[in-house]
Amino acid sequence: MSETVSIVLVGNPNSGKTSLFNALTGLNQKVGNFPGVTVDKKVGYTRLDHRLEAKVVDLPGTYSIYPRSADEWVTFDVLLNPRNPDRPDMVICLADASNIKRNLLFCSQIIDLKIPVVIALTMMDIAQQKGIRIDVPALELALGVPVVPVNPRKEKGIAALKKALALTAVGQYKPPSGDFIPIRELASGLICKTRKYVEVRSDYAALLVAAHHEQLKFLNGGQRLALMNILAEERFNRARVQGEEIMQRYQRIAQVMNQAVVVDDPHRKNLITEHIDQVLLHRFWGYVILLAVLFLLFQSIFWLAQYPMGLIEQAFTWVSTWLSDVLPSGWFSDLLINGLVAGLSGIAVFVPQIMILFGLITILEDTGYMARVSFLSDRLMRQVGLNGKSVMPLISGLACAVPAIMATRNIENYKERLITILVTPLMSCSARLPVYIVLISLVIPDRYLLGFLSLQGLVMMGLYLLGFFTALTVAWVMKHLIHLKEKSYFILELPVYRSPRWKNVFITMVQKARIFVTDAGKVIMVISLILWILASYGPHRQMEQLKTHYTQLMDQQPQQRDALEVEYQAQRLEHSYAGILGHIIEPVIRPLGFDWKIGIALITSFAAREVFVGTMATLYSVQGGKDADRDTLRQKLEQARRPDGTQVYTLPVGLSLMIFYVFAMQCMSTLAVVKRETKSWKFPLIQLAYMTCLAYVASFITYHIF
Q1: 142 labelled as ligand-binding?
Q2: Which range is least confidently modeled, 356-365, 485-494, 540-549, 568-577?
């Protein structure tokens, strides 16, 4: 029978921690090549040997054991809270060999907590490029803990790491008996008295608990009071003690490096990375290149996805036609074809573009360019009163606002974090992508400027940039409304450039497609089926009168039967429950150029923005009956007419609708996560109100200008 031990992964941001977690546990999880990507802990399992299994918890990246942001408090609590469910039996502390001095600071703090620790040395190849050579046995001897070189990207050193962990688990490797620095000399009275009231593993843990006792939820009232009195008695100055501790640690680290680390040429020539950065981070050309990269990104979405989307549309058209020919007429076949298949086609047709978008974003992350985007954006962020750390949530918002808002936890300043939370949903997330695609393909000509610039791609890029610059403008306004006075600093370690891991790119593309089809797809399918019911049924008396009226007309005018059938289906939809609901809200949205069918789609979009596409597919399938089965969604929308015979989806209407979706909140999940992160309904309601007003006004102006 095998035992299970608990292991946590800790380390500085961008030290390869998440890559090592994937290599150990086999979980195919997204890995970002810039600091701060890991906000929540992630859990997986691995087998160390034939009798030992390990639960591995990947903790947020942190530079020091002294917590300042929400994600650093997660690491602090796991390591020091005796009642934390993830309290580790062992710690894997990652150290970037190319930045060994800074990384050993955090490792030395972990060693002094007296939890069994194994140090995993990463980035050894980059250290060699920098002329840094590390004598691993000498480093192991100087630190008093096992040190194992690993390369998680190539899965090298994983077996040796597991062996070191297994030996540590059975007690062959133990924490050093002495401290890395003389901890007790920093505050001997405080440490001795604290250990009488709080059960801790080491003097250093006692010092940390006493210094942060006000924020520690695992302490009871008596312990808090005792620690408060001890701090007063000892006249404890946390800033002074912390500063002295850091100085002593770096002095000791310098001694360790003299024993175990050799730098061939301290005045080495610039690496290739630094030469590339001279161009990509240039004060002028850097922004030109960034715009070019974004342009290529959105052009590629249309270029590469054109053929697979066409094949998917043809496949669903064939399935709908085949089902309508094979199945007998009736409510079940109508539900299957116009409800289920129509809703499913509204999901599947956009899978290629979503896969391509996330594949290209993953390539940018993997190569290291995404961190440069953060660096280039920092100047803009500071102009509008945001922390440079706000760049990462805003960039993440291009994928989904929910994890992006959770990523604001690493912003220490509360007001800056709040502003970032309130403006992040203005970034065009992947849920808006299907809406943009179907509307752009409807109203924007498929033309190329200068022979290679896709007009549709330019419009797509414009929508994304509009959301970004509006977010900055709203942040600037909020800076003055919230009276932001505190200043924060943005420290970003730029990773070296690497070739993308194509396996990781492929896995991310497949995962994002699966998430879209399963998570968003389930919502779309449920709403599509509910809509079919609402669009197929209405008040009994009205529906019977309508049926009787058109039956009589068809009997009287058999030569007009087909035209009357189309008219009957349109009238039937208009008098259905969905039609009644649409007509109720139509006066409010008519100034924006929208009809009642678009109004229904706006309401259902609150479940998820991409539901708009499934809603339109269902409504127009129900209206068209069997005659519409052979048409794609784009063809159905192109053929849509108002009662006066004019086209519904004109250029003004299409642009108005796109602008509405750029600014409107319309996402219940985002509102829920904002409430959870701010611990109040006030802020999500403010967010919903200002974004809805902004969407309405901008859409109104756009419609009437065009």
Answers
A1: no
A2: 485-494
Contact in structure between 268 and 130 (CB atoms under 8 Å): yes
Number of domains in the chain: 2
Report how far apart, in Å, the C-alpha atoms of 583 and of each of 228, 511, 580, 594, 600 are: 65, 40, 5, 11, 9
Please tell me the distance from the alpha carbon of residue 408 to that of residue 391, in angstroms, as a whole number: 10
- Work out whether the CA dihedral 378, 664, 352, 611 comes out positive or negative: positive
Positive/negative CA dihedral, 79, 488, 278, 357 = positive
Task: Provide φ and ψ at 53, rounded to 5°.
Answer: -110, 150
Does 637 belong to an annotated binding site? Answer: no
Q: Residue 261 in 3-state DSSP?
A: strand
Cα-based distances in Å from 213 to 80, 81, 205, 228: 11, 11, 12, 8
Distance CA 613, CA 604 (A): 10
Q: Are residues 163 and 210 in the same domain?
A: no
Beta-strand ranges (E) seen in 211-306 are: 261-263
pLDDT per position as a tens digit, 139-156: 999 999 999 999 887 888
Using CA atoms, how far apart are residues 622 and 597, in angstroms rounded to an integer?
Answer: 12
d(CA 394, CA 396): 5
For residue 14, say whether it is annotated as part of any ligand binding site.
Answer: yes
Complete DSSP assignment for 623-655: HHGGGGTTS-HHHHHHT-B-TTS-BSS-HHHHH
CATH number at residue 83: 3.40.50.300
Are 77 and 209 members of one domain? no
265 labeled part of a ligand binding site: no
Q: Any residues with CB less than 8 A from the CB of 440 and at least 6 apart, and which?
A: 456, 459, 460, 654, 658
Residues 145 and 210 in one domain: no
61, pLDDT greater than 90: no
pLDDT confidence tier of residue 266, bands split at 50, 70 and 90: very low
Does residue 77 sit in the same domain as residue 191? no
Cβ contacts of 304 within 8 Å, gap of 6 or more? 352, 356
User: Is 305 part of any domain?
Assistant: no
- 277 in a labelled binding site: no
Q: Which of these three, 149, 170, 191, is where a domain ends?
A: 170
Q: Is 203 annotated as a binding residue?
A: no
Of the candidates 384, 326, 65, the one whose C-alpha atom is nearest the C-alpha of residue 212 is 65
Domain shared by 25 and 129, yes or no? yes
59 is in an annotated binding site: yes
Residues 98 and 130 in one domain: yes
Asked if the structure places residue 520 within a domain, the reply is: no
Domain boundary among the residues 220, 243, 263 is at 263
Radius of gyration, CA atoms only, the chain: 30
Q: Quick check: is 130 in a domain?
A: yes
**One-letter amino acid for residue 135 of the chain:** D
Tell whether residue 367 is among the known ligand binding residues: no
Domain interval for residue 21 = 3-170
Answer yes or no: do 204 and 247 share one domain.
Answer: yes
- Partner residues linked to 96 by β-bridges: 122
207 is in an annotated binding site: no
Residue 592 annotated as binding? no
Annotated binding residue at 652? no
536, 568, 312, 584: which is closest to 528 by C-alpha? Answer: 536
Is 270 part of any known ligand binding site?
no
36 belongs to an annotated ligand binding site: yes
Consult the annotation and say whether 58 binds a ligand: yes
Are 11 and 57 within one domain?
Answer: yes
**Per-residue confidence (pLDDT) for residue 252, from 0 to 100:** 92
Average pLDDT score over the chain? 79
Q: Is residue 655 part of a domain?
A: no
Angle between helix 238-260 and helix 203-211 axes, rounded to 10 deg: 140
Cα 345 to Cα 618: distance, rounded to the nearest angstrom: 10
Residue 406 CA, chain-centre distance (Å), reads 8
| 8 Å CB contact between 134 and 104 | no
